[in-house]
Amino acid sequence: MKYFNPANLAIIACPGGEVFADEVNSHLRHKYRHSREQTVSEFSKRYNISDEQALLQIDLINKMVTRGPGSQSGTCKNGEQRFKVPVKFTVFANKEIKAEILESIRGKDVYIFQDVENRYPVNFSSGVVSDLSINDHLMTTFVTVDAARQAGAERITLVIPNYPYARQHKAKGREGLTASRIGKIFESLGVNHIITLDIHSRDIINALDKMRLENLHASYQIIQALSKLNGILNDDFVVVSPDTGAVDRNKFYASALKKPLALLYKERDYSKISKDASQTNISQVRLLGNVKDKTVFMADDILGTGGTLIKGMKLLKENGARKIICAISLPLFSGDAISHFDEAYAEGLFYRIIGTNAVYQEEVLNREWYLNVSISKLFAHVISRLHQNQSVSSLLDNAQIINKLLSQTVVPEPQNELPFVQNET
Ligand code: R5P
Question: 274 CB less than 6 Å from ligand 1?
Fold first, then answer.
């Protein structure tokens, strides 16, 4: 009989990451509740006792097994685990930030959640705080990690679906290597592990010394949403990479969906800064491949100002694309990007944008053109496996479950050969 008691698992939500942490927390509780119910039922059958008696026995065994450091678990009345640890977050008058953990986490396996791109008002213990920048959220992460380390956490995992400063992963001229330096800071503060989503570049992972990084993908959730769009996968369909950096991601989708791949080649003028989708520093975009009369699917990691997608979609339309659907792992919608997409949609430039809940959003959720997919359950599964020191590889490679999903959906064989193939780098 297998029942795992996650008494040492603790969740800390930074104010920016609270919504996501609560969703993941609720999946974890559901998962353990289910496993507990199954064990109780097996136990009562095997020893011919009532469920109540079985529950008492299991609780007793768990108490004996988990006695020792970290065993002061937040168990609720009904025997369920309470993973979330209360933290007092304060912003002082000079905008310094403090985190104080309000209950013992000594010896615990701690998961700290943060969404550095959360632009909405968030709850601090001192009241609701608006206008936090990515740097404020980052500083909040630093002080929280440090507080957890000082409080004796055994292992700290940072759950940060949107890795901060990820686009500063390579240095040209006298620039810094900020993305990997942020990783080094996390490492030096005592973070053992990071769980993130669709990280912008593997350079960041390669620069880390001891800290492990799990890079998750939302491809299953995205293809699931795509397959629900009324018969769309039966259209004459082509996957288009929005730039050369996105080729591997789109090659994955093309091969999973058994569709051809085309490519947009994008150049930026780095003497300028993109202000928004209409004043972007993208100087030119070219298309390699054929999109005439086809439904186009285009996947990118980040939607910032929206310049990349809107410029790309215009070119695809000029080249005869019939319908365009985009998928974004990290939908930042910086500045007034949402209104630029409203305009583009009104002009008939695209059909749908699929985004994940890796970045907290409110305004875009009610748009007809926007489909929100949840990655909370995926993160809960990964956390549960890591906590039990089990392999997560089957959760990192979605190819098998996508195949299974598509076998239940009718997807015709490809019409053309792949026009563009590139080896993995
Ligand atoms: C760039 O290489 C990234 O993958 C995204 O394409 C880019 O960050 C999107 O930014 P924006 O929406 O501002 O064009």
Answer: yes
**pLDDT higher than 70, residue 67:** no
Q: What is the pLDDT of residues 24-43, one digit of tens each?
A: 999 999 988 888 888 887 88
Q: For position 424, what pLDDT does the model report? A: 31
Nearest atom of ligand 1 to the alpha carbon of 308: 14
Q: What is the DSSP string of 81-148?
A: B--BPPEEEEE-TT--EEEEE-S--TT-EEEEE--TT--S-EEETTEEE----HHHHHHHHHHHHHHH
What 8-state DSSP symbol labels residue 402? Answer: H
Nearest CA to ligand 1 atom 5: 302
Q: How far, in Å, is the centroid of ligand 1 from the Cα of 311? A: 11
* Index of the ligand 1 atom closest to the CA of residue 306: 12
Contact 257, 418 (CB under 8 A): no
Task: Give the residue whose CA is nearest to atom 8 of ligand 1.
Answer: 302
| Burial environment of residue 251 by CB neighbours within 10 A (0 to 12, 13 to 18, 19 or more) | buried
Q: Whose CA is nearest to atom 10 of ligand 1?
A: 304
Per residue in 230-277, pLDDT (tens digit) is 788 888 999 999 999 999 999 999 999 999 999 999 888 888 888 888
Residue 243 CA to ligand 1 centre (angstroms): 9
Residue 331 CB less than 6 A away from ligand 1: no
- Interval 120-132: pLDDT, tens: 999 999 899 998 9
CA dist 221 and 364 (Å) reads 19
pLDDT > 70? residue 415: no
Lowest-pLDDT range, 69-78, 114-123, 207-216?
Answer: 69-78
Give dist(CA 153, CA 156) in Å, integer.
7
Indicate if ligand 1 lies below 6 Å from the C-beta of 306.
yes
Q: Which atom of ligand 1 is nearest to the CA of 305?
A: 13
Q: Provide, rounded to the nearest whole percent, the portion of the chain with pLDDT above 70.
A: 91
- Which is it for strands 237-241 and 261-268: parallel, antiparallel or unpaired? parallel
Backbone angles phi, psi at 133, to 5 degrees: -85, 170
Among candidate residues 90, 84, 86, the one with its CA nearest the CA of residue 124? 90
Among protein residues, the one with the nearest Cα to ligand 1's atom 3 is: 302
Q: What's the 383 CA to ligand 1 centre distance in angstroms?
A: 29
Ligand 1 closest atom vs CA 337? 12
Amino acid at residue number 362 = E
